[in-house]
Amino acid sequence: MNEVCFRTRHLPNPASLETYRSIGGYETLKRLVTEKVPAAEIINQVKLSGLRGRGGAGFPTGLKWSFMPRYYDGPKYVICNTDEGEPGTFKDRDIIRYNPHQVIEGMAIAAYAMGARVGYNYIHGEIWAEYLAFERALDEARAAGFLGEHLFGTDFSFDIYAHHGYGAYICGEETALIESIEGKKGQPRFKPPFPASYGLYGRPTNVNNTESYASIPYILQYGGQAFQDLGVPGSGGTKIFSVSGHVEKPGNYEIGMGTPFPKLLELAGGVWKGRKLKAVIPGGSSTAVVPGEIMMQCTMDYDSIAKVGGSSLGAGSVIVMDETTDMVQVLNRLSYFYYEESCGQCTPCREGTGWLWRVVRRIAQGKGRPEDLDLLLDVSNNISGRTICALGDAAATPVISFIKHFRPEFEYYIQHGRSMVTG
Amino acid sequence: MLSAEAIAQIDRELTKYPPEHRQSAVISALRIVQAEQGWLSQENITDVAEYLGIPPIRALEVATFYNMFELKPVGKYKITVCTNISCMLRDCASIVQHLEKRLGITFGETTPDGKFTLREGECMGCCGGAPLFHINNTDMYEFLTPEKVDEILEGLK
Ligand SMILES: Cc1cc2nc3c(=O)[nH]c(=O)nc-3n(C[C@H](O)[C@H](O)[C@H](O)COP(=O)(O)O)c2cc1C
Ligand code: FES
Fold first, then answer.
1. Assembly ipTM
2. Would you say A105 and A25 are in contact if contact means Cβ atoms under 8 Å apart?
3. A199-219 average pLDDT score
4. CA-to-CA distance for A158 and A116, rounded, in angstroms?
5. B→A interface, C-beta within 8 Å
6. Which of B28, B52, B54, B65 to mutate to test the interface with A (most CBs of A within 10 A)?
7. Separation between Cα atoms, residue A283 and residue A305, nearest integer Å
């Protein structure tokens, strides 16, 4: 099996420095730094790899790196986003658990290419054990001379610190994350300016997801083309899919982009209890739900999930629902989540998420009114595109897609005061 | 007053940030004090703010914004159950019911002996291990069944 981020997972002590060294770990960093490989060449390989941001937005990583000012008088930062709070997403935790050194090496290569001397890994509050493990990995890397002053006897110095969050989904949004590292409430900033010009402490900053950084050492070790070839045009490389919900074997599966969905479902043991597939949320709770029969036609890459599935690949968080699932109750829980996690800064999001949740809840409690579905769509459309960050859209997308694909279930609740599925 | 032990831990956090940005350590500092005290009083928050040299309101804002801080006393063991979608699909409701029955409390409440507090949590980024909860913000327990919950609770003295 072709694995990139999980390269060490099947070896003994996968997270140790020794194991990472045994697959050539840190040799790439050493080569780039000691041979003084020009930044432009590194960024070109990343562009060639077809790597797109694994945090959800899918922005081309090489292009993002090229936005960082080359010449800047003062500190620049690289930040790794291990906030992972989007329901259905649990891959970054396993990357840190099984292969932390590949994240460290990826961040160091990024720092070398963008001229940063300090990096932070923002690790969300709920995974304390992983936070401590990552700090230990940093200590190991420092002791071995892969982090610190004058690496490999050159004038390149770089260190990384772990920053622990404390329970706020919004801090996954990159400017909220920056605010949070500054010791503030996690409220997203207006953009522009983008972090590449005004980021942490007002300095040029590059933020990437954990899986994005973990892909970098492989790309520079084997070449951008080799990574691209693991996937399909438009979606280079492998991707970790976090499969949860109604499957026999929930877990993380790293497979080539473009793998047919039925194959991924099979890896996860298929729909549990021999039941039929009803629906899939393919990219985390903020992406549109896809009916099972359409999902079975999709391949797991950006284009197919968008064009065939009418949704997005997001962070690759595949939530599987079987035929017994009550879609109204699922939407009720999701709507509560967005209401609860809205940072309160923008009126359409703060008011809109509360409104959406109250209307969905009343339907789910059997007290819905005939005009409620139109009301939900109207409120959703009034949130979309009217907020500083994408949380508002993230709250609206499930509402719109659940009603689009499962309207009769909602209508049944409104007419009969109970579920069409569970009675 | 911050304890010497808390100060030592906060000082270690401060080494991560530029000296002129002591505020960056505020989440960690509050976490460290909460781990020691069980919850954060106004006095704790002011102490942290003073130590970092920031206005108390800045520390209070942070303490109220992040969900894992407790601004009122909680039980010795705070059990936070994820009820978000992946956990919901794996029947976290049965775990919640079991806890409620066994402890005689519901979300947001503390047992009269002050031993347990029950909280509803949002996605903890561990959805493959659903259903799950964490205790005191640090210890994660996954693939829960009512039997496993009993075992865990019996292990808590
Ligand atoms: C509400 C919200 C939550 C987000 N949560 C995360 C997250 O947990 N992890 C992540 O990597 N990106 C998250 N993002 C996306 C980040 O803003 C950013 O695009 C990403 O970290 C960039 O890294 P990438 O290009 O490598 O994907 C979130 C965005 C929004 C709007
Ligand atoms: S939904 Fe429960 S941990 Fe993610």
1. 0.98
2. yes
3. 98
4. 7
5. 16-18, 21-28, 30-31, 52, 54, 58, 61-62, 65-69, 83-86, 88-90, 121-130, 134, 137-140
6. B65
7. 9
* One-letter identity of residue A365: Q
Residue B37 identity: Q
Tens of pLDDT, residue by residue over B6-45, are: 999 999 999 999 999 999 999 999 999 999 999 999 999 9
Task: Indicate the pLDDT class of residue B157, thresholds 50, 70 and 90.
Answer: confident
Q: Which domains does chain B carry?
A: 4-65 (1.10.10.1590), 77-155 (3.40.30.10)
User: Do A403 and A373 touch, CB atoms closer than 8 A?
Assistant: yes
Closest in B17, B89, B125 to A321, CB measured = B89
Cα–Cα distance measured from residue A400 to residue A341, given in angstroms and rounded to the nearest whole number: 19
Rounded to two decimals, what is the model's pTM?
A: 0.97
Run of H or E including A332 = helix A327-341
Give the C-alpha distances (Å, rounded to integers) separating B117 from A103, A234, A373, B32, B79: 36, 49, 38, 20, 6
Residues 6+ positions from A36 with CB-CB distance below 8 Å: A154
CB contact under 8 A, B85 and A334: yes
